[in-house]
Design a protein that fits this description.
446 residues, seven-stranded mixed beta sheet, alpha/beta, eleven-stranded mixed beta sheet
Length: 446
């Protein structure tokens, strides 16, 4: 086997069951890492009884040695010298749960080059440096596993890269950020404003003190990059994923969506076209009969479509220490088993060159809410603006009269760039006070 392997003489055999002991090096011990260490330490006998493997946490790299933690380890296990964890000869397998692109990226690369299997939950890093790290793992002949990087406790990486490897997947839709799904649920079910729903999410620990990565769609964009790359076999980097957040979603639009038979969700949408692949993240009106429309609270879900499978739904807790630590632990066990097998690890993921379709060329349907002066001819002018750039209107509603009038337009599918140009033209009309909101529409209209 290329790279590092655990030979029989390297193993510590203990108890009549002769469990195999693997030295673990942890990079990070925050919410996920701390939960994982507590389980590796506190549930070691149960894990060994079920798997035949005993995991000994030998080094833990942290930024703050004095921070309270939900576990107890021998003195000297914790260190602020992160590279010493990777380089420790007693560490057989490295787990990275520290987050961020650096120094996590260089630490993982060093571990792989040293022939050590790596398990990561770092979606931002995998989305940014995935091909480089995957290639390094293949050269070393050791696993690089990242099941927890997208759906937390939902198994989705392994199904896409293994179980469905032979399926021609056409589309992946994901609710992959529990924070935003909780906020939108509060706004739709309780009528809360965005600031109040965000505050409730922060109070419950669903949202960070700085929630920007979640509410802006950036977190979901990293996950969309990984999902689309695995689904279609063409690598889409995080910078190739268009994203919008939920900051401008108005409770009024959620109410209109419900009236029209839709639920508003922040979706990661990954699609395979005849001429390339695309990934994007934005709020969308989802038909109420679609399985994703009923995903509420901090729950995550991924919906996969293909000609043979038709559709599959994976749903469950996608955030928090316990669900994510469960996915990481599953990868740790899998990586240990592969390494102990002593055979060349077959590459799980291969990518081929492919065209990435710019978002401006993707066809979408739009819901547009306009504040207008209620006077004759306004609808004709709005319709003309859409028609001038080749966008056809599916339906129109008017709410209110005089200065309170709202004109709601839902379009048929059209190229995103044309939809944008139409709205720009409409915003310049004298009769239009404001383009109050724009939300894409999923379903037959999209």
């Amino acid at each position: 086997m290329a790279g590092h392997s655990l030979e029989c003489d390297d193993l510590q055999l203990s108890s009549p069951d002769m469990e195999r002991t693997i030295g673990i090096g942890m990079l990070g011990a925050g919410t996920v890492g701390g939960t994982l260490v507590a389980r590796l330490v506190g549930e070691s006998e149960a894990i060994a009884a079920k798997t035949g493997l005993f995991f000994d946490v030998r080094r833990i790299g942290v930024r703050d040695l004095d921070r309270p933690r939900p576990f107890t380890v021998p003195e000297g296990t914790l260190t602020t010298d992160l590279f010493s964890v990777v380089n420790d000869p007693s560490v057989d397998l490295v787990v990275e749960v520290m987050g961020g692109r650096e120094p996590a990226g260089d630490l993982i690369l060093a571990a792989l080059q040293a022939g050590k299997p790596v398990v990561s939950a770092n979606k931002e890093l995998i989305a940014a440096r995935g091909p480089e790290l995957i290639a390094a793992a293949e050269r070393a002949g050791v696993p690089l596993l990242f099941e927890a990087s997208v759906g937390g406790g939902i198994p989705i990486i392994r199904p896409l890269s293994e179980t469905l490897a032979g399926e021609r997947i056409t589309r992946v839709l994901g609710i992959v950020n529990g924070t935003t799904n909780y906020i939108l649920t509060q706004m739709s079910e309780l009528g809360e404003s965005y600031p109040d729903a965000l505050a409730a999410a922060q109070e419950l620990g669903y949202a960070e003190p700085d929630p920007t990565a979640d509410v802006s769609g950036a977190d979901a964009a990293a996950k969309a990059a990984i999902l689309s790359s695995l689904a279609f076999g063409t690598w889409i980097g995080i910078d190739d994923v268009y994203h919008e957040g939920i900051e401008s979603v108005d409770p009024l639009d959620i109410a209109f969506a419900q009236e029209f038979g839709y639920a508003v969700k922040l979706l990661a949408i990954c699609e395979q076209f005849p001429h390339g692949v695309s990934a994007r993240v934005h709020p969308a009106m989802v038909p109420i009969e679609h399985p994703l429309a009923s995903i509420r609270g901090a729950t995550n879900a991924v919906f996969i479509e293909g000609p043979s499978i038709e559709s599959l739904l994976f749903a469950g807790p996608g955030a928090g220490g316990h669900p994510t630590a469960t996915a990481v632990l599953g990868d740790v066990i899998d990586a240990a088993r592969e390494t102990l097998a002593g055979a060349q690890v077959a590459p799980r993921i291969r990518f081929s060159p492919g065209e990435i379709v710019p978002y401006e060329k993707v066809s979408t349907a739009w819901y547009v809410r306009l504040l207008v002066d209620d006077r004759p001819g306004v609808l004709a002018k709005v319709a003309s603006a859409f028609g001038d750039v080749g966008v056809s209107i599916r339906s129109v509603w008017q709410e209110g009269v005089d200065a309170e009038a709202s004109l709601i337009v839902v379009t048929h599918r059209a190229v995103e760039g044309d939809q944008r140009r139409a709205v720009e033209l409409i915003a310049g009309l004298d009769e239009v006070v404001e383009v109050a909101s724009v939300i894409r529409v999923l379903g037959d209209a999209s």
